[in-house]
């Protein structure tokens, strides 16, 4: 079971900035220092015989980046790419990975004391995918444990 202290960014500081985005109707957050850039879900080349959670690969200024359908990883239906869909290019252990998300939200600053452990029933998804939950004025943000989510797809 993960706890909010599993997140290095929270341990090192009393607050952290989160890039937030939607996967279905769920608002997720990811530490901003893990996000390298955001781009459109265009020109994805499919990879024959790849797992269903891999949308394909993109050429990012000469680097081949695997694009992951984060909806599939989280147990939801495969994403349908729309005009709002985006790739969050994230750095995971020195490797760039694209996360295909439904739409981008805001960058928010969260205080450590305002983050609680994820409830066991968080949208019936595996709680290990989340390092904490932040309740804002209007929304609840589930903080994605990126490493656990990507490891589960392998």
From TrEMBL:
SMART domains: CheW. This is Chemotaxis protein CheW. Gene3D superfamilies: CheA-289, Domain 4, SH3 Domains. Residues 15-154 form the CheW-like domain. InterPro entries: CheW, CheW-like_dom_sf, CheW-lke_dom. It holds the Pfam family CheW. The gene is cheW_2. One of its GO terms (cellular component) is cytosol. One of its GO terms (biological process) is chemotaxis.
